[in-house]
Amino acid sequence: MKKRLLLLSIVALTACNTTRPITTESNVEKPYVHIPRTYVSISCVSHDGAPYISDFSIEEPIVSGPLGGKFAYGASCGGIIAAGYALPEKWTPGMKVRVRWKPDSREWIEKTTNILRYEKANRITVHFFADDQVRVVSSLYYPESKYYPILENTTVPPPEEE
Question: Helix or strand or coil: residue 4?
Protein backbone atom coordinates (compact mmCIF):
# COMPACT_ATOMS: atom_id res chain seq x y z
CA MET A 1 0.00 0.00 0.00
CA LYS A 2 2.83 2.44 0.88
CA LYS A 3 4.55 1.66 -2.40
CA ARG A 4 1.36 2.39 -4.35
CA LEU A 5 0.89 5.75 -2.55
CA LEU A 6 4.53 6.64 -3.21
CA LEU A 7 4.20 5.73 -6.88
CA LEU A 8 0.93 7.65 -7.17
CA SER A 9 2.54 10.70 -5.50
CA ILE A 10 5.49 10.63 -7.91
CA VAL A 11 3.17 10.38 -10.93
CA ALA A 12 1.03 13.26 -9.64
CA LEU A 13 4.04 15.48 -8.96
CA THR A 14 5.67 14.80 -12.31
CA ALA A 15 2.39 15.66 -14.04
CA CYS A 16 2.66 19.14 -12.46
CA ASN A 17 6.19 19.51 -13.74
CA THR A 18 5.33 20.07 -17.38
CA THR A 19 7.57 22.15 -19.57
CA ARG A 20 6.82 24.00 -22.73
CA PRO A 21 8.19 22.30 -25.80
CA ILE A 22 11.18 24.01 -27.37
CA THR A 23 10.24 25.67 -30.64
CA THR A 24 12.11 27.72 -33.17
CA GLU A 25 9.85 30.67 -32.40
CA SER A 26 11.15 32.61 -29.44
CA ASN A 27 11.00 36.13 -28.05
CA VAL A 28 14.74 35.99 -27.39
CA GLU A 29 16.57 37.32 -30.42
CA LYS A 30 20.10 36.30 -29.42
CA PRO A 31 21.49 34.16 -26.61
CA TYR A 32 23.44 35.81 -23.82
CA VAL A 33 27.15 36.09 -24.57
CA HIS A 34 29.57 36.96 -21.77
CA ILE A 35 31.78 39.91 -22.72
CA PRO A 36 34.67 40.54 -20.31
CA ARG A 37 34.66 44.16 -19.15
CA THR A 38 37.06 46.45 -17.31
CA TYR A 39 35.83 49.23 -15.05
CA VAL A 40 37.36 52.58 -15.97
CA SER A 41 36.99 56.28 -15.15
CA ILE A 42 35.42 58.86 -17.47
CA SER A 43 36.28 62.45 -18.31
CA CYS A 44 35.68 64.93 -21.11
CA VAL A 45 37.54 67.50 -23.19
CA SER A 46 35.84 70.52 -24.74
CA HIS A 47 37.85 71.52 -27.83
CA ASP A 48 38.14 75.08 -29.20
CA GLY A 49 34.86 76.15 -30.75
CA ALA A 50 32.78 73.80 -28.60
CA PRO A 51 30.49 75.32 -25.97
CA TYR A 52 30.97 74.95 -22.23
CA ILE A 53 29.67 71.54 -21.13
CA SER A 54 27.91 71.70 -17.77
CA ASP A 55 26.90 68.01 -17.56
CA PHE A 56 27.37 64.88 -19.65
CA SER A 57 26.66 61.17 -19.56
CA ILE A 58 27.82 58.21 -21.60
CA GLU A 59 26.10 54.90 -22.05
CA GLU A 60 27.99 51.68 -21.44
CA PRO A 61 28.67 50.23 -24.89
CA ILE A 62 26.60 47.50 -26.38
CA VAL A 63 28.86 45.32 -28.50
CA SER A 64 26.08 43.80 -30.60
CA GLY A 65 22.42 44.57 -30.78
CA PRO A 66 20.49 47.70 -29.88
CA LEU A 67 21.68 50.35 -27.47
CA GLY A 68 20.21 50.41 -24.01
CA GLY A 69 22.93 49.97 -21.42
CA LYS A 70 23.52 51.88 -18.20
CA PHE A 71 24.69 55.50 -18.21
CA ALA A 72 27.67 56.92 -16.30
CA TYR A 73 27.38 60.62 -15.45
CA GLY A 74 30.03 63.29 -15.31
CA ALA A 75 30.20 66.94 -14.43
CA SER A 76 31.75 69.68 -16.54
CA CYS A 77 34.90 68.96 -18.52
CA GLY A 78 38.23 69.22 -16.77
CA GLY A 79 38.14 66.48 -14.14
CA ILE A 80 38.07 62.71 -13.97
CA ILE A 81 35.07 60.90 -12.58
CA ALA A 82 35.75 57.56 -10.90
CA ALA A 83 32.48 56.26 -12.28
CA GLY A 84 33.06 52.54 -12.62
CA TYR A 85 32.26 52.67 -16.32
CA ALA A 86 32.10 49.10 -17.72
CA LEU A 87 34.14 49.00 -20.92
CA PRO A 88 34.62 45.77 -22.93
CA GLU A 89 38.23 44.59 -22.64
CA LYS A 90 38.44 44.15 -26.41
CA TRP A 91 37.35 46.71 -28.98
CA THR A 92 35.06 45.41 -31.69
CA PRO A 93 34.10 47.13 -34.95
CA GLY A 94 30.87 49.10 -34.72
CA MET A 95 30.96 49.41 -30.92
CA LYS A 96 28.60 52.33 -30.30
CA VAL A 97 27.70 54.47 -27.31
CA ARG A 98 25.10 57.13 -26.75
CA VAL A 99 26.38 60.42 -25.31
CA ARG A 100 24.17 63.07 -23.71
CA TRP A 101 25.40 66.53 -22.81
CA LYS A 102 24.16 69.95 -21.77
CA PRO A 103 26.03 72.74 -23.59
CA ASP A 104 25.93 76.25 -22.05
CA SER A 105 22.30 76.96 -21.17
CA ARG A 106 20.83 75.00 -24.09
CA GLU A 107 18.69 71.87 -23.97
CA TRP A 108 20.26 68.42 -23.64
CA ILE A 109 21.78 66.95 -26.81
CA GLU A 110 22.02 63.22 -27.46
CA LYS A 111 24.06 61.54 -30.18
CA THR A 112 25.27 58.04 -30.90
CA THR A 113 28.91 57.59 -31.91
CA ASN A 114 31.47 54.84 -32.28
CA ILE A 115 34.24 54.35 -29.75
CA LEU A 116 37.56 54.85 -31.51
CA ARG A 117 39.66 51.68 -31.81
CA TYR A 118 41.65 50.80 -28.68
CA GLU A 119 44.19 48.07 -27.98
CA LYS A 120 43.65 47.87 -24.23
CA ALA A 121 40.63 49.12 -22.28
CA ASN A 122 41.48 52.11 -20.11
CA ARG A 123 39.97 55.45 -19.09
CA ILE A 124 37.25 56.91 -21.33
CA THR A 125 37.40 60.49 -22.57
CA VAL A 126 34.46 62.12 -24.35
CA HIS A 127 35.57 64.85 -26.79
CA PHE A 128 33.19 67.69 -27.60
CA PHE A 129 33.69 69.76 -30.76
CA ALA A 130 31.94 72.68 -32.46
CA ASP A 131 28.60 72.04 -34.19
CA ASP A 132 27.60 69.48 -31.54
CA GLN A 133 30.09 66.87 -32.73
CA VAL A 134 31.30 64.24 -30.25
CA ARG A 135 33.91 61.44 -30.24
CA VAL A 136 34.72 58.83 -27.58
CA VAL A 137 38.24 57.52 -26.87
CA SER A 138 39.68 54.85 -24.57
CA SER A 139 43.42 55.23 -24.17
CA LEU A 140 46.31 54.37 -21.88
CA TYR A 141 47.51 57.96 -22.38
CA TYR A 142 46.08 61.21 -21.05
CA PRO A 143 44.80 63.82 -23.54
CA GLU A 144 47.90 65.95 -22.87
CA SER A 145 50.20 63.23 -24.27
CA LYS A 146 51.56 63.36 -27.81
CA TYR A 147 50.59 59.66 -28.10
CA TYR A 148 46.91 60.30 -27.38
CA PRO A 149 44.62 59.66 -30.42
CA ILE A 150 43.01 63.15 -30.47
CA LEU A 151 45.37 66.04 -29.74
CA GLU A 152 44.09 68.81 -27.47
CA ASN A 153 44.55 71.57 -30.09
CA THR A 154 42.39 69.67 -32.63
CA THR A 155 39.31 71.63 -33.64
CA VAL A 156 37.82 69.17 -36.14
CA PRO A 157 36.72 65.70 -34.98
CA PRO A 158 38.42 62.72 -36.60
CA PRO A 159 36.24 60.57 -38.87
CA GLU A 160 34.21 57.87 -37.14
CA GLU A 161 35.55 54.35 -37.51
CA GLU A 162 33.21 51.49 -38.29
Answer: helix
Of 153, 91, 83, the C-alpha closest to 125 is: 83
State the amino acid at position 69 in one-letter form.
Answer: G
pLDDT, tens digit only, all 162 positions of the chain: 655 555 555 555 444 444 454 445 555 555 666 778 888 888 889 999 998 888 888 887 766 554 456 677 676 676 667 667 888 899 988 888 899 998 887 899 999 999 999 999 999 999 999 999 999 999 999 888 999 999 888 888 888 766
Task: Bin 104: left if φ > 0, else alpha if -120 < ψ < 50, else beta.
Answer: left
Residues 125-146 as b or e (16 or more Cβ within 10 Å = b): bbbbbeeebbbbbbbeeebeee
Give the pairing of strands 37-46 and 124-129.
parallel
Helix (H) or strand (E) holding 98: strand 96-103
